[in-house]
Amino acid sequence: MLLAASLFSCTRPLPGPETPANGTAATVSAAAEVTVSVIGTSDVHGYVEPRSLTVKDDAGTVQKIQRGGLALFGGYLANLRAKSPVLLLDAGDLFQGTLVSNLGEGQVVIDAYNVLGYSAAALGNHEFDFGPAGPVSVATKPEEDATGALKERIAAAKFPFLSANVLDTKTGRPVAWPNIAPSTRLVIGGVPIGIIGAITEDTPRTTNILNLRDVEIAQIIPAVRAEAQALRAQGVAAVVLSVHEGANCTNFADPRDLSSCRNNDAHILKVAEQLGGYVDAIVAGHSHAGVAHFVGDIPVIQAFAMGQAFGRVDLQFRQGPTGYQLDKSRTRIYPPTELCSVQLPPAGSQPSAISTPAAVEAPVAAAGSAPSAPKPPGWRCDPRYLAGKPLLPAVYEGAPVQPSAQVQAVLAPHIEKAAARRATPLGVTLAAKLHRNYKAESPLGLLLAELMRLGVARATGQQVDLALQNGGGIRNELPAGPLTYGDLFEVLPFDNRVALMQLTGAQLKQLFLRNMQSGHGVLVPSGMKIQARCSGPDLQVSVLDGAGKPISETRSYTVAVSDFLASGGDNFGEIIKSMPQGAVKFYENLNLREVIATELKQYRGPLLTAQPLPMLLQLEKPRPISCP
C-alpha cells in the first residue's frame, strides 16, 4: 500500500486558511459542532438553461414555470449557504451536449460554475470529446494536442479539477496539467476535508479513443485508496470522493434500503463497498440516475442529469482534542432535490404517466418483456403533475428561491451566440415525440439509423448495406411539432465524422452477439434485421438482409457508423483488431450530424408518424442476454 501511495498520491492544498464554497474569504471560529452540507451535481452536459413549462393553476390561470438550469440552482445554493457551510462538488460530464455549450467547447459551464462557487469537479468520460482546442474534434495529427480543449477549460476554472486515475502515458503518473490534481484539501466551515476525484474505468469505450492518445485510465480503487491515505496523513477530518461512476436507484424513502439499486447499473455500489474506511462520502455520476443511500456507512448521492436536480448529504463534525471528528451516526442523506421555480407537492403522489427523472438513461423493456430495473419515481416539476394546483414560489431552507442574477449574466452572451443557429427550422414536423433508449431499440434510434443509411449513401455515393446507431450516441429525445436544428443538436451533440466499414457476414454476427450480451449501448440497425434466441446455454444470433434472407457469412457488407464506433468504441474494439488495412474509411469532411440533418429535411418516411413499426431487433429477452 505504501508503494501505491507513492505512485498515485499528489494532493494539492489550496492557498489560504479557508476557501468557502461561495468563493469569499471567511474567518471561521472553532465551533463545538459544524454541519457541512455536501452538494453534488453531475452529467450537466451543457444544460445550463432552464426548461420553460406552461401550467394552468388552480384558478385557471396559465403560468410559466421553470425546471432546472444553473441560475435557478444558484438560488437554491444561496439559501443553503445562508444556513450552513457548503462543499459543492461535480462528478463529471460538465460540457458536452447543447449548442450553447458546445460552441465554446464548454466555456459557458466553466463561467457559470465559477460564479456558483464550486469547490472541485471530477473528470467525466465526455470531458475528452472535444479533442484539440478549436474546430477539429479528434486528434489525427501528431502535432495536435488530443486534450487541448479540455486543458483550456480546466485552466479557466477557479476551482480544481480532480482525477486520481487519469495517468500520463509518458510518466505513468497522474496528469500534471495546470489546475488538475488527484486530490485536494479544503477547509469548509473550519473543518479540513479531503476531496478525491476519479473517472469511470469505462472511459476508453465511451469517448473517442483517439482523444485518449496521451492518457491512460487506471483502476479506481487503488488510486483512491492511496489518495485517501495521503489525505488522512495531512489531518483531514473527512474524505469525500467525487467519481464519474454511478448507479440507478428508484426508491428514496429509506436510505438504508438498497433493494431498488441492485440492478445492472449498480457500479458505484461495488466501488463504495471496497472503500470502507478510506472515504466518508461519495458524489457519483455517469449513469444519469439517482442515488441517496448508504453503502455500509458511506453515504452516496447522485442526482440524475442535465441540470435538473442536485444531491445533498449533511456531515456532522464535533470538536475533539485533536480537531474536528466526523460523527457518522448523525450523517443525513436527502433524496435528490428537483430544481423547480414553484413549490412541489409531496413525493409519491404523481400520476404514473409522468416521465421519469432517470428517463435519460433508464432502460425501457423490449416488447413483451420486463424492464431490467424497477420503474423510478416521476418528476414532480411537470405540467401534468402541477396542473390545477396552486403555484407558489419555490422555498428552500425556509426562504424563497430567487434565480441567481450573476449566473444569468454570465450565461446571456453564450445563449445569444447560439440563438440563431438553434432556431433554424428543419422543415420537418413530428406527429409525436420520438423517445430514445440506451439499452433497447427505440423509435428515435430507428429514425437516426435510417437517416444515417440514406444520408451517408447520398453523401458518399456508396451503396450502404447497413447503418448502426449506438444507444449512447443519442443524448435527448426529439419533441413533437416543427423541428429546429437545436432540437437535433441536443439529440446528436457529438461532432462525429462519417465512417464506412467493410465487414463480413461472420463479423456482423459476432458484433451483434457481443452487443446482445453486453450492458453497453444498443446497436440499432437500418437495412438489416437481427434475431437472437437462446439454444441451451448458447445465444444464437441471425442477421437477415432487407428481403428477410440470412446474410452470407463470407460476403463483405458496407456498414455506415460514426467514427467513434469505427475507432473501437462500445463493442467494436475486438472487431477493429481483426480487420485488414483499408477496411475502414473515415470521411474527414463529413460531420455525421450534418449528414443526418440534410437527410431529415427531405425524409418523409413512416418514422415521422406516431404509428408503431416492426422491431428490427427481435430478441426473446432484454439485453444483456444471458442464456441458462
Brief characterization of the structure:
23% of the residues lie in helices and 26% in strands. The chain is of the alpha/beta class. It contains 16 helices and 31 strands.
Folded structure, characterized:
Helix content is 23%, strand content 26%. It contains 16 helices and 31 strands. Strands 2, 5, 6, 7, 9, 17, 18 and 19 form an 8-stranded mixed sheet that branches. Strands 1-10-11-13-14-16-15 form a 7-stranded mixed sheet, with helices on one face. The chain has a 5-stranded mixed sheet with strand order 26-23-29-25-30. Helix 11 (443-460) crosses helix 16. The longest helix is centred in the middle third of the chain and has 18 residues, at 405-422. The protein starts with a helix and ends in a 9-residue tail after the last strand. Mean pLDDT is 90; it is low at 1-28 and 349-377.
Relevant terms:
single chain, seven-stranded mixed sheet, eight-stranded mixed sheet, globular, alpha/beta, 628 residues
Give the helices and strands, then pairings.
Layout: H1 2-8, E1 12-13, E2 33-41, E3 51-56, E4 62-67, H2 70-81, E5 86-90, H3 99-102, H4 107-116, E6 120-122, H5 148-156, E7 161-162, E8 166-168, E9 180-181, E10 183-188, E11 191-199, H6 203-206, E12 215-217, H7 220-233, E13 238-244, H8 267-273, E14 281-283, E15 290-295, E16 298-303, E17 309-320, E18 323-326, E19 332-338, H9 383-386, E20 395-396, E21 399-400, H10 405-422, E22 425-430, H11 443-460, E23 466-470, E24 481-484, H12 485-491, E25 497-504, H13 505-516, E26 523-526, E27 529-535, E28 538-544, E29 556-562, H14 563-566, H15 573-577, E30 584-591, H16 592-602, E31 617-619
Parallel strand pairs: 1-10, 2-5, 5-6, 6-7, 7-9, 11-13, 13-14, 14-16, 23-29, 27-31
Antiparallel strand pairs: 2-17, 3-4, 8-12, 10-11, 15-16, 17-18, 17-19, 20-21, 22-24, 23-26, 25-29, 25-30, 27-28
Helix pairs in contact: 1-7, 4-10, 11-16
